[in-house]
Write a structure and sequence with these properties.
Largest sheet: 5 strands, antiparallel
Order of helices and strands: HHHHHEEHHEEEEHHEEE
Keywords: Cell membrane, Membrane, Transmembrane, Transmembrane helix
Structural class: alpha+beta
Protein name: DUF421 domain-containing protein
Shape: flat
InterPro entries: DUF421, UPF0702_alpha/beta_dom_sf
Radius of gyration: 26 Å
Strand content: 15-25%
Distance between the termini: 63 Å
Helix content: 40-55%
Number of strands: 9
Family: Belongs to the UPF0702 family.
Pfam families: DUF421
Amino acid sequence: MSIILIRTIILYMIILLCLRIMGKAELSKMSPFQLIVSFMIAELASIPIESPDVSLISGVTAIFTLLFLQVSISFLSIKSERLKNFFGGKPSVLIDDGRINHREMKKLRITINDLMEQLRICGYPCIAQVAYAVMESNGELSVIPKSHKRNITAEDLNMKKGREVMPVIFISDGTVYPQNLSKSGWTEKELSERLSAMGISDREKVFLAFCDEKAELHVFLDRDDTFAGEVKQ
C-alpha cells in the first residue's frame, strides 16, 4: 500500500510539472494532437500505479518522452505553417459572405442541422444573420454577424469612450496589494487619502477594496457596509 501511495505522489508531481511545461495554451482549447498527448500521459501514469511490478522509471521515461515530443512540435509549429496545419489542423470557412460552403461542410462531414445547432448556441438562430462562420482548428465555431445584426458600439454612435483599466483588488481582508495599486496607477498614499475621506482610518477593517474598469474605488466593510469612491484623477 505504501508503495502505491509513494508512486501516486511521485507521478502526480511529474504530471503537474509536465502540464506546467506544456504551458497555459495547451490547457485551454486543445488540438487533436494535444488531446492525444494528454490522454497518453494519463494512461502512462496509471500503469505504474495499477501494476506495482512495472518499473516506475519506465513510466516516467515514457511521460517525459511525450513531453519532449509535444514541446518540440510546438516550437517547430511556430516556425512552419505547414507543420502547424498538419498537427493542429487549420480553420475551415463554413459560411463565406453569407453563402454556405457546401464543399467544406462535406469535407468536415457536417450537416446543415449541425451547423444550425452551433449557430443557435452562438446566439444566431437564423443563417441569414451570419456573414462568416469559421470552424476553428480546435473544433469551436466562430461567428461574425452581418453588419446590420451587430451590437451597436460607442464608435457607431460617435461617442467618446473614457479610458478603461483592468479591475484589480487593492485590499483583501486588510492586506494591501502594492503591485495591483501600481498596475492601476494608484499609490498607497492616494489609497490612504481616499480611505480617510470615507472615514476609514484602519486598513485592517477593510474586507475588500477594488478598482473597477473606470478606475473607481469600491470599499466593503464587514461584508455589509459599502462605500463608493470617486474616479481617480
